[in-house]
Specification:
- The chain is α+β, with helices and mostly antiparallel strands and 698 residues long.
- The chain has 5 domains: 76 residues, membrane protein fhac (Ubiquitin-like (UB roll), Roll); 86 residues, Ubiquitin-like (UB roll) (Roll); 76 residues, Ubiquitin-like (UB roll) (Roll), CATH 3.10.20; 72 residues, Roll (Ubiquitin-like (UB roll)), CATH 3.10.20; 196 residues, membrane protein fhac: a member of the omp85/tpsb transporter family (Porin, Beta Barrel), CATH 2.40.160.
- 16% of the residues lie in helices and 40% in strands.
- It has a 12-stranded antiparallel sheet, with no helix packed on it. Strands 1, 8, 9, 10 and 11 form a 5-stranded mixed sheet that branches.
- The two termini are 34 Å apart.
Length: 698
């Protein structure tokens, strides 16, 4: 109930103005221009249907709404139904039907008077909110038919927008003026009123749950000094109703089955700037779970289903937990192909014992198989690129888990703005079609940049990347970095499905020159890699790399470690690796992990002889408010053999964005007496991150 000194309601005032006729004029005239000769018991045939008076609405559109058809018997009831249906689309002010004798039957003449069109649309009276933002809420456009229902709906949309911004007293009047015989000017006249904020929310009748806990479950909040940042303190009818439901859910999760939440009492202050909200509760008694059992299940035993759930006898009755338990049982069935499985919870409340006996009635349905897999929205990307990521194929038994995994894999391609996968049961069959709808995004990138740093001085960089070349999923990358102390040229090409087989192949070449303080390094090399998946989450690869490194211009003050590197040496290495990756999203993971093990063996005809072992493990855990905790640990060691030392450029350097942020390159490792960063032959790194979105996805 809303109160000030009188009853308070947030009004939406809708009225017409000018000389525009808004009343319904629906006329049905059957004018018989001549005798219709037909036996009394037989209706004449409709020989012709003529449509007159329509200018903006096409004849085909009108005909598609009519049941009366040429060649069929005339029916007055059908004509009346046609008129009602045609009027219902909102385009006409008047509809008349005339009947004439014609070629031994009748001709029906539908005569329409169309509603006028909107030839000018304005917004007036707004001062606090920008016109362009208001216009974004309006769905009507110039040229549209002046449909009063749509005009009213748009006025309400503007009011709701004002209320969402705190202008709870805002009113909108659509003013209609006739400009021409078939055109009107529509103006939304706005009276904004003062901005109203929530001063206080009072909870009454609660003893089992504190005010603080109840308010924390609500999105409606009281105004505070930082409301301009958080958006709190604004009253919304829609939001308060959602909050009442959340309060009810909170109590029902604590065993209060019969919690009653009253309509909020909303009182406006005398100066019409503050709102006071009172929510009254009747908690009732707390109940515990009595017995819990399942019935009507044939696919799984009682024990198998009971083992899936956390609700047990003696616990406080928790409707939210029970809902999650039901979802687990349904998921169990859906992974066996029972795509229409459902569970009906039957709760027998015993008020004297304060217990609730639960019976889960299972509706198993039948096993569904996959019918058609339809892919739409891919303009550039070939069907096979998407289809090969599907974990289900036509004819397979339906599985919800595999459907979810299919979504993850297609989304992880990073070719699409959005991916939507929906099962669509075929009527009267045990087949489930899968509709895959994607919206492509730009997968090519050209970036050119420049900058200045104390180390590299002036630098320029350029990169061309295409992650979906020719729509085949090929990944091409060309990169150039140039500065006074560094030059880097790199080109690589990767095919995730080489020769249309589930084997990835990549090749790359590079040329890099770096001028360090005590020496210069030039590296030229190339690599080739093949990989494949061993299972859904486990993959392996093998990489061969050959690299020629030349160390020159060593300063006289350089350490013996650096001076020993002078000259040109060839490194020929092979690196097998294995990994497990269960991240839900490769770019922005919120759950899952990636664990990798690799071993590099260098020799194979080269000048350098060493082996290198690496372990990398990263885990992601969702927490509150769409945030994630990421934990990562890395271990590596490198050793020379055949009396060779580990080359300086094959050591581990800790520090920088890829290892430890806040430290410069190599600053986390050993430094000699001359202050040179020599790297290490072992590394152990642990990182912890708290990840939160700066902008929520729409």
């Amino acid at each position: 109930m809303h109160k000030d000194s009188t009853e308070f309601k947030a009004p939406v005032l809708l009225s017409g103005a000018g000389h525009f006729l808004t009343a319904l004029a629906l006329t049905i005239s059957f004018l018989l221009a001549g005798p219709v000769t037909a036996p009394a018991e037989t209706s004449p045939l409709i020989k012709m249907i003529e449509i007159r008076g329509n200018r903006k609405i096409s004849t085909d559109t009108i005909s598609s709404k009519m049941k009366s058809k040429e060649g069929e018997p005339f029916s007055k009831n059908t004509v009346q139904d046609d008129i009602r249906k045609l009027y219902g689309i909102g385009y006409f002010d008047d509809i008349r039907v005339e009947i004439e004798a014609f070629e031994g039957g009748v001709k029906l003449i539908y005569i329409f008077m169309e509603k006028p069109a909107i030839i000018r649309l304005d917004v007036q009276g707004n001062k606090e909110l920008e016109t362009k933002n208001i216009r974004e809420k309006i769905t009507l456009t110039t040229g549209a038919i002046a449909n009063l229902a749509l005009i009213t709906d748009n006025a309400k949309k503007i009011v709701l927008y004002y209320q969402s911004e705190g202008y709870w007293l805002a009113t909108v009047v659509p003013v209609i003026n006739k400009v021409t015989d078939d055109g009107i000017a529509l103006t939304f006249q706005i009276a904004e009123g003062p901005k109203v904020s929530i001063d206080k929310i009072t909870i009454e009748g609660n003893t089992a749950v504190s005010d603080r806990e109840i308010k924390r479950t609500m999105k409606t909040r009281e105004w505070w000094i930082f409301s301009f940042l958080t958006g709190s303190g604004v009253y919304s009818e829609e939001q308060i109703r959602a909050d009442l439901f959340k309060i009810k859910e909170l109590y029902q999760s604590k065993g209060y089955i019969y919690i009653a939440v009253s309509e909020p009492e909303v009182v406006l202050s005398p100066d019409k700037k503050d709102l006071f909200i009172t929510i009254s509760l009747s908690e009732g008694d707390q109940y515990r779970v009595g017995s819990i059992k399942v019935k009507d299940n044939t696919v799984f035993s009682d024990a198998e289903l009971i083992n899936q759930i956390k609700t047990t006898s003696g616990l406080i009755f928790d409707r939210t937990a029970l809902r999650k338990d039901i979802d687990k049982i349904i998921d169990l069935y859906m992974d066996r192909g029972y795509a229409r499985a459902d569970v009906d919870p039957l709760v027998d409340v015993k008020k004297e014992e304060k217990t609730a006996d639960i019976t889960l009635a299972v509706i198993e349905g039948g096993i569904f198989r996959i019918g058609r897999i339809d892919i739409t929205g891919n303009i550039k990307t070939r069907d096979k690129v998407i289809r090969r990521e599907m974990r289900l194929d036509e004819g397979d038994i339906f599985s919800k888990n595999l459907l979810t995994r299919s979504y993850q894999r297609i989304n992880n391609l990073n070719y699409f703005e959005s991916v939507d996968i929906r099962p669509a049961p075929k009527p009267d069959t045990q087949l489930m079609d899968i509709d895959v709808k994607v919206e492509e995004k730009l997968t090519g990138m050209l970036s050119i940049g420049g900058g200045y740093s104390s180390v590299d001085k002036f630098m320029v960089m350029g990169e061309i990347t295409q992650t979906n070349l020719f729509g085949k999923g090929l990944q091409l990358k060309l990169k150039v970095d140039l500065s006074s102390r560094r030059s880097n040229y790199n080109i690589s090409l990767r095919d995730p499905w080489f020769l249309d087989k589930p084997v990835s192949a990549s090749i790359g070449v590079y040329n890099e020159q770096l001028d360090y303080t005590d020496y210069d390094k030039k590296a030229t090399g190339g690599s080739i890699t093949f990989g494949t998946e061993l299972s859904e989450y486990v993959g392996t690869s093998i990489n061969y790399q050959i690299e020629q490194v030349e160390i020159t211009n060593v300063s006289d003050n350089a350490s013996s470690l650096i001076r020993d590197q002078i000259g040109s040496k060839l490194t020929s290495s092979i690196s097998p690796s294995i990994w497990r990756d269960s991240r839900d999203n490769y770019l922005d993971p919120t759950s899952g992990s990636k664990n990798a093990l690799y071993l590099t063996f260098a020799g194979l005809g080269g000048d350098n002889h060493f082996w290198k072992l690496g372990v990398d493990s990263g885990w992601f855990f969702p927490v509150i408010w769409d945030t994630t905790i990421g934990l990562r640990g890395r271990y590596g060691c490198v050793r020379g053999y055949n009396s060779d030392e580990v080359p300086l450029y094959e050591r581990f350097y800790v520090g920088g964005i890829s290892t430890i942020r806040g430290l410069g390159f190599g600053e986390g490792g050993p430094v000699n007496e001359e202050g040179e960063k020599n790297g290490g032959v072992q590394q152990l790194i642990f990182n912890a991150e708290y990840i939160f979105p700066l902008v929520n996805e729409m």
